[in-house]
Description:
This protein is mainly alpha-helical. 58% of the residues lie in helices and 0% in strands. The chain starts with 18 loop residues before the first helix and ends with a helix. The N terminus is likely disordered.
Amino acid sequence: xxxxxxxxxxxxxxxxxxxxxxxxxxxxxxxxxxxxxxxxxxxxxxxxxxxxxxxxxxxxxxxxxxxxxxxxxxxxxxxxxxxxxxxxxxxxxxxxxxx
Length: 99
């Protein structure tokens, strides 16, 4: 009998968020450390260690957070500040990727 590890995202490489990238993702979503731990159903210590870069979040949570971040950035509020540095960085990366 064989079992697959992740049937929902079989075409996506296994991603494990940690450190700066995880922090950036949480800032884009506007989540505090406490809220992120609650919504990801993880212990705050596990999230803190991932933010510190000493460990990483599980692949399923990492993929979910990246999907949420992409959706949030793709459909910003119509009143979002244009000068927001995270939004500006995203637009820059997106334009470089399409070129």
